[in-house]
Amino acid sequence: MKFAYEDLSDGQFETLIVLLCQRLLGVSVQAFAKGPDGGRDAKFVGTAELHPSMTAPWVGTTIVQAKHTNGYNRNFSESDFFSTSAASTVLGKEIPRIKKLREAKQLDHYMLFANRRLAGNAETEIREYMASRCGIPTSSIYLCGLEQLENWLKRFPEVANEADLDPVDSPLIVSSDHLAEVVQALARHKDSAAALLDDPPTPRVTYERKNALNNMSADYAKVQRRKYLKETAQVRVFLAAPENLDLLRMYESVVDEFQLKIVAKRKDYQAFDEVMEYLVNLLVNRDPVLRQHAHKRLMRAVLFYMYWNCDIGEVGDASAD
């Protein structure tokens, strides 16, 4: 059973893992509420039902952690997740917490689930490193990446239903690949684009009216307009060029996805400022192309163009202005 795990929220992923661990360990797996978890998302005390096997199950206290990322194609070996020379990685920050639980005799076994790919050599290296730092036998450490997670969910398909993984209830998560292609192509042609007047599309509501309809703050709207208005004509001409028809279609697919998601999840955000910044942070985290400094600024310009062009957000009635 395949999921776009990166499209889940952290809470949804944690719920999925807890339910899965109830199958692997036992129904008494206890999930912890959100907040400082002290190195644990769930705990099981007793004899495991299936893990690591029915004939040699773990006995004692098992601590479970779920590490979720919205990034595409991530793996355990990436320097932000694991490094033997850096304590600021995702796992590096957990080592002292795990060690503290071990020294307090509150941990006999440790399970880590992540929606990242896990190669065999990385699995061995990470387990041995954690064992040496935390004083836990390597046989009592279990790392689960995407490949094994898929296998478990095929064996226990009911877990997804119990986790209530309904796309309608998913967070405001959008794909980045098509937008990255548009931004990358625009960056290549931007310097040669002709400078044109920044005429808004017609008909449309005024910028001030649109901001009021979408609850965008005056200060945020002013900064956006000052920084990116001059880019809108170049974006418009670029997308309208006959040779860029495929890119225009990509842009339109991005707009459709963004708008539908925004409409569905708008109630989760107080102001449209928050929607825009959420999209920026999400897209930058998900796509290495958009993370590049020059591309990041251009991506913001394209997002502003979507808003300015009335492709996203509430539009209102132009005749009322």
Summarize this entry quickly:
The chain is α/β, with parallel strands linked by helices and 321 residues long. The chain has helices spanning 10-24, 90-103, 120-134, 146-155, 158-162, 177-190, 207-214, 218-240, 245-265, 272-286, 288-291, 293-308, and strands spanning 30-31, 42-47, 59-67, 109-114, 141-144.
Report on the structure:
- With 321 residues, the chain is an alpha/beta fold.
- The chain has two domains: 5-169, Trna Endonuclease, Chain: A, domain 1; 177-320, no CATH class.
- 50% of the residues lie in helices and 8% in strands.
- It has twelve helices and five strands.
- Strands 1-2-3-4-5 form a five-stranded mixed beta sheet.
- Helix 6 crosses helix 9 and helix 6 crosses helix 12.
- The longest helix is centred in the C-terminal third of the chain and has 23 residues, at 218-240.
- It starts with 9 loop residues before the first helix and ends in a 13-residue tail after the last helix.
